[in-house]
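Hi R.,

As promised on Friday, here is the backbone we talked about, encoded as structure tokens. Could you run it through your design pipeline when you get a chance and send me back a sequence?
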């Protein structure tokens, strides 16, 4: 239960754009010693961590975070393709400075994620982090919370 509350704090701070505070709480989740109790949260926390470091523009550190995330997901034998797609695409985004190329990458990521989310097993990610809304917020040049509000109107 504690890990769920801590994750909720991280997600809430992310939602209002306070990425540093979000990372603080997300690190508590990732570093929790009881990871085998809620493996789903830890797996999705890894993807959320990649997104957070992207938002914080920690591009050099992001390379390490993506490698670490990929190792973790392989060890867990996770079947969710969305996690791998997101990590790979965000890593490319961090290396891309040209605006048009970045938009193209985001559009590709959006179409891949949209297709994957048609699969019920892949949709589980949305319970923890709305990756689709995050991608659209980047494409629409709005905050994550504004994108979420847009989608719920």
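Update: got your reply. Pasting your designed sequence below so it's all in one thread:
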């Amino acid at each position: 239960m504690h890990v769920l509350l801590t994750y909720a704090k991280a997600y809430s701070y992310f939602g209002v754009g306070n990425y540093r505070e979000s990372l603080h709480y997300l690190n508590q989740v990732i570093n929790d010693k009881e990871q085998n109790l809620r493996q789903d949260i830890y797996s999705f926390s890894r993807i959320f961590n990649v997104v957070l470091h992207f938002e914080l523009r920690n591009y050099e550190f992001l390379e390490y975070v993506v490698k670490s995330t990929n190792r973790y997901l392989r060890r867990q034998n996770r079947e969710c393709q969305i996690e791998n797609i997101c990590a790979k695409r965000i890593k490319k985004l961090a290396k891309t400075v040209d605006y048009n190329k970045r938009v193209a990458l985001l559009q590709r990521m959006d179409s891949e994620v949209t297709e994957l989310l048609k699969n019920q097993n892949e949709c589980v990610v949305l319970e923890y982090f709305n990756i689709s809304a995050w991608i659209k917020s980047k494409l629409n040049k709005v905050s994550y919370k504004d994108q979420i509000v847009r989608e719920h109107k």
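One thing I noticed while checking it: The two ends are 31 Å apart (CA to CA).

Thanks again,
M.
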